[in-house]
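Ligand-bound model needed. zinc ion.
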Amino acid sequence: MEGKIKLAPSILSADFARLGEQVAEVTKAGADYIHIDVMDGHFVPNITIGAPVVASIQTWTHLPLDVHLMIEQPERYIPQFADSGASIITVHVEACFHLHRTIQLIKELGVRAGVALNPASPLSLIDEIMPQVDLIVIMSVEPGFGGQAFIPETLGKISRLRSMLNSRKLATELEVDGGVTINNAPGIVKAGGDVLAIGASVFKAKEGISHALQKIRQAIS
Ligand code: DX5
Ligand code: ZN
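Prediction:
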């Protein structure tokens, strides 16, 4: 299991004035995905970046770009993000009126489709869509900001989702996003997470980005 764990540094906590260099640094340090948080100031109380920045990031890394849309009615912008080089586009179940159609749109554009669940949203909300998606993101903080504390109740939700995926024989990736640290990463992996989005614990680490990422890798190996 551990061999398959992917690390997805979240650029939300990067120095945006040095974004390309920092993306190159995590790439060199052994990241698996680059996690890109897109926020619209409506679905979440924060604004970040749009498709042009995703296109620029693509020129600094060969890694898949894992684009997490925290925006209302994301179908309006999905073609732009697909054009900008996204490998995975994740939408929130809470932000889509017609989730099935939105997931189909992502897949028709040749991009892997993900669905995210806020901490208070039950797994039953994705019961029907589960076989259609490539990735499920379990939010372990309320979306909107980096550097928040992991909500401990999320561990049970991760285990329950892992059991559901196993019993349905689905190879869907299970990403955990928010408050992941070197201390809680082993427990998250044990519960069944196989992609860890990590922002502050990598980009704001005192020991530096590369060292922090490598230490987290060791902690889950
Ligand atoms: C939160 C974002 C996360 C965030 C995680 O809304 O979706 O990806 O960057 O950052 P940390 O690891 O700092 O909680
Ligand atoms: Zn995210």
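The longest strand covers residues 34-39.
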